[in-house]
C-alpha cells in the first residue's frame, strides 16, 4: 500500500463532517492538506488543529472561478497537488411534488456541477503528479430513497462523472475513484433527522446494510485507506459493496411491493413535515447557499 506521507491533498467541503475527519486522518498519516469550503471560521479551526504546513481557502464549488482560484492558491502555497477529494455536498429534503425546485437545482449544482468544476480545475495538476481524484458519491447513487430525489439524482450523476473522467485520464497516469458512504454520523445527517421525524422511521425499515450508520471517524479512515491504494471504489461500510453489485434490487418489483405499505404511510407524512418547515434545505445549508 503506497504511503501518503508528504503528499498534498485538497479536500472540498472540508469544514466539517467527512471532509474534516478525512483531513485529520490523512494529516495523521503525514499528508499536507488544502482545505476548501464555504465556512472560513470552521476551515481555519480545522487547519489550526492539524498544525503547521497546511492550508485553507474559502471557495464555492458551484463557481468555477472560485474553485480555480482556491486550487491555484493551494498549489502556490503547498507546491503541488497529488490528491483531490471532491467531497462538497448538500442533501435537500422533500419529494419532487412538494420540494422547492430551487433546492433541487442547487443540489445538482453542488453535488454534480461542483465535482465537474473541482475536477476541471485540479486535473492539470494531478496529471503533472500522476495523482488521484476521489469523487464522493453515495450509497444513494445505486439505492434510491423516496424523499431524497435531488440527492439521489445528483449523486448518481457524480458517480457516472467519476467513471467518465476515469476513462479520460487513465492513460495519463491519473487514477479516479468514487466513494459510496451510507449513513454517516455527520451534521448533515443529524440536521435532516432533526427536521424530519419520518426520516428515522424510513431508515429503520430499509434492509441491512442500507440502514447501517457509520461513525465519521471510521468513514475518514476508509477514505484515507482509499486514497492510499488509489481505489476505484470506496464503500462505507464495506458491506455496501453488495448493494452496488445488486444495484437493481431496490427498484425491483419485489422490493417495491415490500416497501409500498411503508411508503404509503411515510411519504405523505414527510411531505407534511417539509411543508411545515417552509424550506427544503437544513437551516445551516440554507444560510450557506443563500
TrEMBL record:
Q: What is this protein called?
A: SDR family oxidoreductase
Entry keyword Iron:
no
Gene3D superfamilies of this UniProt entry? NAD(P)-binding Rossmann-like Domain
State the GO CC annotations. membrane
**Name of one Pfam family that matches:** adh_short
**Protein keywords:** Oxidoreductase
Domain Ketoreductase stretches: 7-186
